[in-house]
Each structure stands twice: as structure tokens, then as C-alpha cells.
Amino acid sequence: MTDSKPSNLNVPNVLTVVRIILVPVMVVLLFWHPEDASWRLATAGVFTIAMITDFLDGTIARRYNLITDFGKLWDPFADKALTGAAFISLSLLGELPWFFTVLILLREWGITWLRAAVAKYGIMAAKGGGKAKTVVQSLCLVLFLVSLTVLPGWLQVLAWALMWAALILTLVTGVEYVREAIRLKRRAKR
Q: E strands within the chain?
């Protein structure tokens, strides 16, 4: 009996490619008329659809055993491209201080690199904290993409509270991943 690998042409991988395609669409919509509320709603809508594809591709891939090397490589890339483009764009527009963007992206890209570097010792699977971080980042980005100027005061406060929570969760989970990488390496060398 041979183990056959699933084809790269499957629904989860198509959703990943759709997410990658939506990144420049989101950026163009945001910069086309950044002061126009309807364009900002469209931008937030594209971002939300892209984040839904992230949830769906992982769920479908695990449920139907459609995990492929393509998905392992490109799904995290698509996630980082989407959120990274949103953070950078908001900072370029002057709507989000650069220190949020720089700290969050350094952690995101650093942990992605770390996961690849320690893959020979074992796989660092996503943990609950990392998933919570993604949810909080996504929620605050949707609110910021809608534009804080059109949100009522209480939603502006919520958006900033979520942004701070996203930063803290991002940094804390980054430290957890570094600890896990050290443990994996030590265990493999024994």
C-alpha cells in the first residue's frame, strides 16, 4: 500500500492563492481614496474575505487531509503578506504609529524564519496563543482599515485597545516560540 500525497490543485491551496491575490487588491483600494468611507469599507471587506480564506483553507486541509508542501510554504506567506501589507499601509498613511508595525512584523517574520531554521529538529506547530494573536490582529486591522475617523468613539477606543492587545500577544507568543525552538534543538541533540 502506498501513501499518496494530495494534489497541489485542491481547495485549500486555491484559497491560499486567492488570499495572495487579494493583498494588492486591498492595498490599491486603501490608497485609491484613503479618506473616503466607502473605499475604506471596501478595503476592510477585502481584508475580511482574505482572513476568512485563511480560516477556511486550514480547516478544509486538516479535515480532508489535503495538507501539501505547497500549502505549508505558501499559507504562512499569504498570512504574513496580508497582515504585513495592512500594517505597513496604515503606517504609511500615518494612521498607525510605526513602532506597532515594526515590532509586530519583526516578530512575525522572525518566527517564520525561526520555524524554518529549526524544522530539521521538529515542527513548531501553531499554539493557542498564536491563534489568539491572529484573531486579535485581524479584528484590530479591520477596525483600522474601516478608518478610525468614521467609527464612533467607543469603537475607536476598542480599536486601540485591540491594537495594544495585538502587540502584546504578538511579542509574548514570539517569546514562547523562541523557547519552543530552544527546547526542540536541545531535545534533538540529546
A: none
Contact status, residue 157 vs residue 104, Cβ threshold 8 Å: no
Can you give the length of the chain in residues? 190
pLDDT tens per residue, the chain (190 residues)? 456 788 888 999 999 999 999 999 999 999 999 999 999 999 999 999 999 999 999 899 989 989 888 888 888 889 999 999 999 999 999 999 999 999 999 999 999 889 888 888 877 777 788 889 999 999 999 999 998 888 889 999 999 999 999 999 999 999 999 999 999 888 888 8
In 135-164, which positions are buried (b, 16+ CB within 10 angstroms) versus exposed (e)? ebbbbbbbbbbbbbeeeeeeeeeebeebbe
- 2 part of a folded domain: no
| Residues spanned by the domain of 89 | 11-189
Is pTM, for the whole model, over 0.85?
yes
* CATH number of the CATH domain containing 92: 1.20.120.1760
**How many domains are there within the chain?**
1
